[in-house]
Amino acid sequence: MKYYLYNSKANNGLKPDVPVATELVNVLGLDYKDFFKSLDDDDEVVLIGGDGTLNVFVNQMEGVELKHKVYLLGAGTGNDFFTDIGKNAGEEVYINDYIKNLPKV
Question: Nearest CA to 5 among 56, 63, 41, 77?
């Protein structure tokens, strides 16, 4: 299963369109560590958002070894992360390799 995680308070509360056979999950109040523990081994996760979404995720997942494929679908305002890695917002980018090197604050 592929899970798309979004913030229901972002984008004026509009739910993003996601492909069929996926699940849309609101991240408000979500404990990322518990969420990842509940996943099957072959599940994948897509974070929908920008730099702030990525920052929150990285900080909440500190110390956790990610066993699942995690992607970022750029839907933020500035999308500096995408610019830094030479990708375009609006595409799903595999970020597991980047996450371990991002600063935590």
Answer: 56
Which tokens belong to 90?
A: 């609006």
Which among 11, 22, 2 is positioned nearest to 52, based on CA atoms?
11
Give the C-alpha separation, 60 to 73, whole Å. Answer: 19
Pair 92, 46: CB distance under 8 Å: yes
Q: Can you read off the two tokens belonging to residue 79?
A: 């999308």
Phi, psi of 100 (to 5 degrees): -65, -20
* Span 19-47, pLDDT tens digits: 766 888 888 889 999 999 999 999 999 99
State the Cα–Cα distance between residues 73 and 65, nearest whole angstrom.
Answer: 21
Q: Is 38 helix (H, G, I), strand (E, B) or coil?
A: coil
pTM over 0.85? The answer is yes
Burial class (CB in 10 A: 0-12, 13-18, 19+), 81: buried
